[in-house]
Amino acid sequence: ASQPLIAPSILSADFARLGEEIAAVSGPGAGRADWVHVDVMDGHFVPNLTIGLPVVRSLLNTTDIPLDIHLMIEDPDRWAPGYAEAGADNVTVHAEAAHDPVGIARDLHAAGAKAGYSIKPGTPLEDHLDTLRHYDTLLVMSVEPGFGGQEFIPSVLDKVRTARRLADTGHLRVLVEIDGGINADTIEQAAEAGVDCFVAGSAVYGADDPARAIASLRERAAH
Ligand code: DX5
Ligand code: ZN
């Protein structure tokens, strides 16, 4: 892993002020978000409901920062391409929900987006290595998807280490992303395991100064 990427999750932001909340992490310097992570939940794949394509479209009009769309929804085959067509930079679907993941990756690429593939904490990486050849990012969930503010599950770092090794030896070309429970206490172990991109919700938007929180996470991930 080279320079760490920090992706604040707006799940922990004020949903009535999303534009301002993104602006707060869009300044220059180490406090600037590399990606803004957007959690789309449908109340079926996960027991929580957030926002969908209309809000994402509006966010795309308010920011230059790449949007990292995390689809925690059923039937992503049907819905994922719309986010790519709208201009999202990276669109991630869940392994546990995708019917034809290779077809999804092809559709996302055809629409000009990167394709992301996410596995829940209990999902083995080994079962998905062939599929991952078609993807640009691997999102390793370090909590059960659905809610912010949960405790980091360190055992998922074995999957990160495996993915790192496969990426470093050229067997996979994925960027390794982690999501869930990342904060000042947990980010260093994730960085050591080989994560490239760190999603952080409550650690950024629960802080008094979100940009400063990003800068400090960045600093810790680099050491
Ligand atoms: C959880 C979401 C995460 C969430 C992380 O299902 O995918 O992106 O926002 O929140 P924290 O960083 O608070 O665990
Ligand atoms: Zn997420």
From TrEMBL:
A family per Pfam: Ribul_P_3_epim
Catalytic activity: D-ribulose 5-phosphate = D-xylulose 5-phosphate
Residues the record lists as binding a divalent metal cation: H37, D39, H70, D179
Entries under Gene3D superfamilies matching the protein: Aldolase class I (3.20.20.70)
Entry-linked SUPFAM superfamilies: Ribulose-phoshate binding barrel (SSF51366)
Cofactor: Mn(2+); Fe(2+); Co(2+); Zn(2+)
A GO cellular component entry from the record: cytoplasm
Keywords: Carbohydrate metabolism, Cobalt, Isomerase, Manganese, Metal-binding, Zinc
Co-factor note (free text): Binds 1 divalent metal cation per subunit.
Enzyme class (EC, first level): isomerase
EC number per UniProt: 5.1.3.1
Sites where the protein binds substrate: S9, H70, G146, F147, G148, G149, D179, G180, G181, G201, S202
Pathway involvement of the protein, from the record: Carbohydrate degradation
Active site annotation, chain numbering: D39, D179
GO BP terms: pentose catabolic process; pentose-phosphate shunt
One function term, GO molecular function aspect: metal ion binding
NCBIfam families assigned to the protein according to its UniProt record, in alphabetical order: PRK05581.1-4 (NF004076), rpe (TIGR01163)
Family statement: Belongs to the ribulose-phosphate 3-epimerase family.
Protein purpose: Catalyzes the reversible epimerization of D-ribulose 5-phosphate to D-xylulose 5-phosphate.
Designated name of the protein: Ribulose-phosphate 3-epimerase
Origin organism lineage: Bacteria, Bacillati, Actinomycetota, Actinomycetes, Pseudonocardiales
